[in-house]
């Protein structure tokens, strides 16, 4: 813990060497040649001197409010195909308030909210306590602690000050939705079995939702931070279909490609509130939630990674076909190859 009990979370969003190694092994399993490329200032130069067919993008970017879109933007400018969502989606999804504006405009339920650019701005009368205070442009529950859920004005102001001071950005304040915690993966155009995270076994730890501590130490029973995971979620069939439908709509509203994971809180009256859309969800078979859902759908980690490759290749092949068609040429159908050279691009921690 640092001064003011604020934990050091600088590296929370980066993939561990073990996760990267697992993705590389899964790519090898399908016969791909893989080059590991670090997302540093040297990245554009590397691609000018090496030819690859596809980049398997897992880069979180290095800095700034649009960091997840940096590597995709470079690849777009160099005309190099890559897996997953485009730069515009990655930049948008990193801004929770902008994401919520899009969701709301599509009629997708999201908790009522207000953005605070200064900690002293007046609170909208329509917002009802308890509220949750989060940094608007972080992930991995950075800046989300149990004290982030506030029941009155004084604690709201304290949290706003902490967020604005520590993260140097606006704070997002939302009504706290008391209900089941769900996350829903989408791959291709299909929703995966829903994952439910039940935090009731963690009560003694004092953590009661998916806070930074809960994520950082998830599974550590000695700290009391071992939530119960249920996949598929303990929901009736009609509710599951409704929640999956909401995740698919959120995926499309943000323009996600290939795969995404949408975080949802299901209120007791059955309304699924979308908290955020993750177009670049973690793919670690050890500690990420997305592979839990693909495993429940019967996909091994190797098959999951290959599916993402195939989805991306098919997308680019289709784009190429439509360009040829636009110019009045003939189109030869192209099978996605399984022996391409792939560059796995990772972020610099
Ligand atoms: N409005 C809310 N109501 C209830 N819980 C929330 C709300 N917003 C966030 N949370 C809790 O905080 C966690 C992290 O919030 P989220 O918006 O998904 O940010 P991150 O990008 O850091 O994952 C959620 O998974 C949930 O447990
Ligand atoms: Mg989340």
Separate helix tally: 10
- The residue fraction in helices comes out at 25-40%
- Report the average pLDDT across residues: 90
Order of helices and strands: HEHEHHHEEEHEEEEHEHEEHHE
Low-confidence segments, given as residue ranges, are 331-340
User: What shape does the CA trace take?
Assistant: globular
Major sheet details? 6 strands, antiparallel
Associated small molecules: adenosine-5'-diphosphate, magnesium ion
Structural class: alpha+beta
Number of strands: 13
| Radius of gyration based on Cα positions | 21 Å
Proportion in β-strands: 15-25%
CATH architecture of the domain at 112-176: 2-Layer Sandwich
CATH topology of the domain at 112-176: Dna Ligase, domain 1
- The top level CATH class name of the domain at 112-176: Alpha Beta
């Amino acid at each position: 813990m640092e001064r003011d009990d604020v934990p050091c979370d600088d590296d929370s969003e980066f993939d561990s060497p073990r996760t990267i190694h697992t993705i590389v092994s899964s790519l090898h399993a399908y016969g791909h040649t893989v080059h590991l490329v670090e997302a540093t200032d040297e990245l554009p130069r590397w691609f000018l001197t090496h030819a690859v067919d596809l980049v398997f993008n897992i880069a979180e970017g290095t800095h700034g409010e649009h960091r997840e879109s940096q590597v995709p933007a470079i690849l777009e400018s160099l005309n190099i195909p890559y897996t997953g969502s485009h730069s515009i989606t990655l930049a948008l999804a990193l801004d929770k308030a902008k994401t919520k504006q899009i969701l709301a405009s599509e009629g997708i339920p999201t908790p009522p909210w207000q953005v605070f650019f200064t900690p002293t701005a007046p609170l909208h009368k329509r917002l009802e306590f308890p509220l949750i205070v989060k940094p608007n442009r972080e992930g991995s529950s950075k800046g989300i602690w149990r004290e982030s859920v506030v029941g009155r004005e004084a604690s709201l102001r304290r949290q706003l000050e902490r967020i604005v001071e520590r993260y140097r950005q606006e704070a997002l304040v939302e009504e706290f939705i008391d209900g089941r915690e769900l996350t829903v993966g989408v791959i291709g155009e299909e929703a995966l079995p829903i994952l439910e995270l039940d935090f009731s076994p963690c009560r003694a730890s004092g953590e009661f939702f998916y806070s930074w501590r809960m994520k950082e130490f998830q599974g550590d029973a000695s700290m009391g931070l071992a939530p119960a995971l249920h996949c598929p979620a303990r929901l009736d069939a009609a509710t599951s279909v409704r929640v999956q439908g909401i995740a698919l709509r959120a995926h499309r509203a943000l323009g996600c490609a290939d795969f995404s994971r949408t975080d949802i809180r299901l209120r007791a009256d059955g309304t699924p509130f979308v908290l955020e859309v993750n177009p670049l969800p973690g793919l670690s078979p050890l500690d990420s939630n997305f592979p839990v859902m693909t495993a429940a759908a019967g996909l091994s980690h190797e098959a999951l990674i290959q599916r993402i490759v195939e989805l991306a290749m098919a997308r680019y092949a289709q784009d190429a076909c439509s360009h040829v068609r636009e110019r009045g040429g003939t189109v030869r159908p192209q099978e996605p190859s399984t022996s391409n050279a792939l560059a796995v691009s990772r972020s610099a921690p």
